[in-house]
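User: quick one
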Amino acid sequence: MTSKFYKRLFLLPGLLLLIAIIIFPLLFTIRVSMANWNVSHSGLDWAGGANWARMFHDVNFWSSLFRLFYFSFITTTLQYILGFTAAMYAWKGFASRRFFRVLWLVPLMTTPSVMAIVWRSIFREDIGAANGLLSKIGIDPIAWSTQIFPATVTITIAEVWQWTPFMFLILLAGLLSLPKEQFLSAEIDGATPWRTFWSITFPLMAPISIGAIIIRLIEASKIFDSIFNLTSAGPGNSTETPAYYLYTRGLREFQISYGATMGLMYLILAILTLTILGQIFARVSKPRGI
Amino acid sequence: MKGSTVNLDLRSVSVDTETEVILKDISFKFEPGKIYVLIGRTTSGKTSLMRTIAGLIEPTDGEIHLGEERLDEVPIWDRGIAMVYQQFINYPHRTVLNNVEFPLLRAGVSKADAKAQALAMLEKVGLSEFKDRKPSQLSGGQQQRVAIARALVRNTRVILLDEPLMNLDYKLREQLREEFRTLFKGTADSVTIYATTEPSEALFLGDELLVMHEGRVIQHGKPDFVFENPSSIDVAQIVNDPPMTILDAEIKDGKVNIGNLITFPTPAHLKSEKDGKYKIGTRASEVILGGSESNSEEGTVSLSEVSGSETLLYVKLNVGEVVLQLEGIHDYQIGQAVTISLAPNRIFLFNMDGTLCAAPGN
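Assistant: Done. Structure below.
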């Protein structure tokens, strides 16, 4: 009984867990994607690359991916800008910081799917609060869920509302951790508050910003509950994202093999995109020495 | 601004918070071309005074004028002031060159000019070869040089240096102190204010000394004058390092008695003082080890420490503790018995309320 044996023995539970929850499902999914498992035919027969070929020609899948790019990009950008602004306000102590901090956390404490239902009632075309407010200022009611653009806006608003506090929290923590001296000395060096923000605060916050943005992008790519509850991917499939499309094909229509194929493709694209983004962020921030 | 004399004029400036007084009624006129040294203990208000001039603290009372301008009403970034801090504060995400360019660019200097001036300044402080490094890749002394270059490059009307050598080691401190004299010589249009706790720095650098204590300026004047004629025990303690030893004494019948054991005939400079109770002060470097006459007393060493090339000896006597500074490095044990005597002609005499009564002169 060498110490090496014990080392391995103690690592075993973790390794088994890893195999059970990641490695086996991943390998199994790859195998499933090469079978014909669907509602009328179960089991692991061999279909070769049929599902993969089908996916590459599936317009719905690819357009859902582009839609996802749009949603993640827009919502994350808005969340970042709003979250950063709010964090700056709280940091500078303009508003009562503690009160604001608590207030800003309310959306984070709510259940997203419950909130989606609340948003749906707000955006209801007949009795919703959104149209009610618009009519007060003389704007005609908007068909929130039956037109493509308003439906997109609805989801964007719900997502931004739900997750801006997350940005706020991380960015505020980042701001609070910055050394104060640089800001004082920038002011003395003649930098206006606006200048100080762009020359000092923003670059110093780059590492934290990048972290927060990447976390939000990962989260945003899973967007499902708000779409499910707000628009059900409609009108038509105009607000359908990969997660929703996978759910429809794989679980609702029970095309397990095809769902597995798309899931794998989605995984590959997500890893690629995030890696590339990570590289770009690193390169953008490096010349500034962060 | 060149050539004109723009005075920095503080008119009864006070700063207080709800709980404490930070600066109390400070009025002083600073003239350009001189180095003013603020000396005081750590919480005496030196930093607060500088921050008030810079605009980081708003005075609760009083006015600050710079020439015709009412400085305390100008936003910080428009004040045209440079400041170097005790900590080495630079912009960590910018290169050394970009750091030094920063204040120039903010002042509206063109990019090319800013670069040229920054490079010239880096040459002056001896950092040319490090211009493309980040501050974190420099040593402490070099980082502080970057901060100093950043402060001097803009040629501001007021330069504030808040204990800039504090966090450096002994050797670097002496080296930079030396450089400061030449660096600040070229700033004839600027008011230079330098805060320190070190009397040696004050004597070395200052054209004018302001002694600060508990938020007030308690004495000002030429450094050697203040050093020879401290107006009170507080000043004497602040401008001497180690602090002056203060003992209770009595003048009676042409003799000075210190705790009944040390007695000597009243020295010449104290002859005109009336009989009565006083406090006497003696500098650590002027206390004598040994002596067999009546003016000596035996005590025990309570602490012995080597500081640079000197040894400080804290000796417990019946009358109190005496600090003694010896040239060279000596080995003393705690509890060891030593005999101490005072140099009568080097005694400072203070009234019981702490004000100076007579100084030994040069």
